[in-house]
Fold this protein.
Amino acid sequence: MSKEKLEKNNQPVLGETAHHIPEHGPIAENGKEILLSLKNVDITFGKGDSLNRAVKNASFDIYKGETFSLVGESGSGKTTIGRAVIRVNPCAAGEIDYKGVRISGKIPHSLDREVIRNIQMVFQDPAASLNERATVDYIISEGLYNFHLYKNEADRVAKVENMIEEVGLLPEHLTRYPHEFSGGQRQRIGLARAMVMEPELVVADEPISALDVSIRAQVLNLLKKFQEERGTTYLFIAHDLSIVRFISDRIGVIYKGDIVEVTTAEELFDYPLHPYTKSLISAIPIPDPLLEKNKVPFTYDPSVHDYSVEKPELTYIGHDHYVFGSPSEIEEYKKIREAGVPIKAITIREPGEAAEEPVAEEENVSREPILDTPIHDTGSIWLSILSFILPIIGLITGGIFRKHNYMRNRKSCRKGAFIGLGFRAALLALFGILLLLSII
């Protein structure tokens, strides 16, 4: 579509640098409004030989009103992308667009303020992200003060009290300081600070990792409630696919800075095409202890890919499914997907097979000499005393203990013998000095 047509439809020109955020973003081919778009984003740290590409050529769209989850193991670049969206981490290449307007790199001050107002982040570590010297009331109100999002003092107080109650705390908590709260309560304060701004997009960086298991569902339901009532869009960063599956509209999988798969939640779990995605799904614990015991985990081996000739890229294969791979791999992924047979990422052993394996492991362990500690290998102090008195015999005894794997007893004998020999050497040296002085 040409620039003139976009302007005629009151839609922004993609990648355009503007002073203000438009009311609506561009419309994708599926008819959904694109709120946030990453285009070939590279994020690096360091310079020269120490340069590290934390994120490589990352591209994906987030539609308005959806929950887009970004999952991967620790160090894969999830939080780095989240911090780039809120303009904390600069992009070395590519660009980030919000409603079709570029918000990465150098932008006008007026646009920067609107980005801060419309994009909020809930950080992973609530203790580090809250000002310990400020009261909870001021922490939640700080954004309201900076953007004057209240009519008068009574309106500000009402907004703050209403928000603190919505996240499960009480108005009397507003006069306290962050150090007076538990980790889960601090995270609720961080959530209240973000949501009181009524943002369109919230970057949630593992917001429930600091919470007890019993209240995680409550916080997730709270996030869903905000989404239904306010139309909030989430970039949900996590490593736990078991939670992500039930709260996400679409999921992006990232491995060492590369986006390896992007699709809907249902599609991802039915057809995990990339091997790394399969390994993440196979790592999800099974509630049944017997099945969990018999589960065969799938381990991802990057060496299965040969990218020496064919270079990989994130490619659309249909069914709203993007996969990272070389052209030959993409063709194979397409064949698997078009076959329409769901892929099993989790394999369960037969009960008979599982029963034999632990026994074999135990037998192997019992044959390890370092673990076959005799009952009487106590390292008694009396062995050290006897070895101190008779050091030569102590060393010989220590050698015998070592032969029969009495390692503690051997150590006691050697310790006493060495101290005894050192003591005798010191006496001889002292006697020699005295004898020399008497001759002189």
